[in-house]
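Data deposition worksheet. Section B asks for the primary sequence of the deposited chain exactly as it was used as input, without tags or linkers unless they were present during the calculation. Section C holds the resulting structure in token form. Section D is free text for depositor observations; keep each observation to a single sentence. Incomplete worksheets are returned to the depositor.
Section A, Depositor: J.P.
Section B:
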Amino acid sequence: MLTRPEGKPGPALALASLLCLALAGALPAQPDQPFVDFIDVQVVEVDVVVTDRKGRPVDGLKPEDFELYVDSAPVQITNFYESRVLRDQPVGDSGDTDRSNAERASGPGSSDDAALTIIFYLDEPSTLPSHRTRLLGRLEHAVAPWRSMEARFMLARFDHRLDVLVPPTRDLDAILEGAAAVPKGSPRAIQNVEGARRSAIRSLIDSHEACLQTLYCRPCQDNWGELLSLARQHADNQAANAAIAADGLADLVTTLAGVPGKKAVVYVTDGLPQRPGISVLDYLGNQLCPDLRRSASSETMAEILQYDESRRFNRVTAHANANRVTFFALDAAGLRDATPDISLDRTTAPSSRNLNLHNMNAQSGLHLVASETGGKALLNANDLALLLADVSEQLAVSYSLGFAPTAARPGEIRQLQVDLARNAAKGRTVEYRRSYREKSVDERLAERLLSVAYLGSAENPLEARVGCEASEALGKDAHALAVTVDVPAEAILALPFRGEETGQLRLWLLAVKEDDGARTKVRQKSLPVGGGSGVAAIDGAYRFEVAMNLPEGAYQVAVGVRDETTGATSLIREPVSLPTPKANATARP
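Section C:
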């Protein structure tokens, strides 16, 4: 079935899609298989940033300077490396200033585990176009220090679906060109961000004044139900907007899951309220009606407690932590103030206290997603360069603490704690992700396949070949696409068993629609090869055929092939448009 990326709103695709693996010839059951003891050794990497009293990064620390705990129990640090991504950047106090840059770059940190990708992510429905224009107009100047970074960069936007504008690249100019070419923001943002709140308060005032002008109508008594309904409606709408924003973040994390190394997301938005609608409910209970209804404050407080998005945001941060994604949440509203709304009468305009409550609530979710993932909330400044300087400083020097996880239930979230040893802790602050979740081999490979489908970055150690044959029309806007996968027999390790040599392959497949990001589910199948009962090699290669029924359109077809014995995995992406040039002109009945 073609589905939109998880959490995206919008009508479901009206055309069902069938994915089935069709092998060249029937495969009989194989009761006896050679014994293969496959051990998947995983090390959990915890990225840590240490700063001094002035907020400067601290370099030169050693493994013995850290204490690592999982669910409050100490664990041994088995892997350790220090990473510096800015060439010749100044740092704070150092534990070992004599070590060379070459020494810092040695060890496990020189592999993909130490790679850094910075993603500039625009949440369009939650960012006023004027704020967005102000920030993007200063982007080139603000990211100038990043030109000395050993990092890759990526640009993405969310407007009710994730749109990767520039996939990971070392060319920072490509990001600037992509930012200059994006549309001018979402008109929905004007209503979603500030217009909705003003409209809700205006509606409360109108209802209040209408009651005052009506004979025998007691304000905040006889019209209390209407007032509460208006405030609830606003809170419900804001909760829906927060859910959409959280789903966009979750989809971004899923897309980044297969990208190696650390991922730092600069999340641009006008706020992520943890308690949707709190300022309007507070205005009703503590400013409009407290003198006219004794229980107004307590009743609205009870309503406020019903709206809490922290659990939703915590699910997003747990997902991010499982994929080494750190959020730097940037408040595009800049320097917020508490000036009363001049469009309202002075006696009915929200108080400065109420506006402060609104501002703090808008930033509360930004604090949460940043702190839980080891990042930072970038707030209360109109200068983008100043805000991104905090990102550069946070990323300048970091440490990776690796440990071997103990057995846990699939999907179980484990809590992390990192402390500095007593001799290294004075005047220093530690930032790190607060949790991790173990993932199965299948989950990790499915996530890598998703990243290849959306971002490219294919890898093909098995030298597999993927082809998309001519499609066949099935009906209106429906086509059957034949996908062929050829794997060289010499690339697969076959083990001797009862006089034969057999191997085991696993295939993964999905398709992503280019215009709206809709995708099929990731499907997989394990296949024996060689020997008397496995798929036979033809012309030196194992060939598989995959049938996909898809709607008309342009797709990226992603295929994964894994040698189950060695663990070697190929991930390949192939573009295709349906109908293909050789598609049948006449649909089958």
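Section D:
Confidence is low (pLDDT under 50) at residues 4-39, 95-110, 583-589.
Residues 181-393 form one domain.
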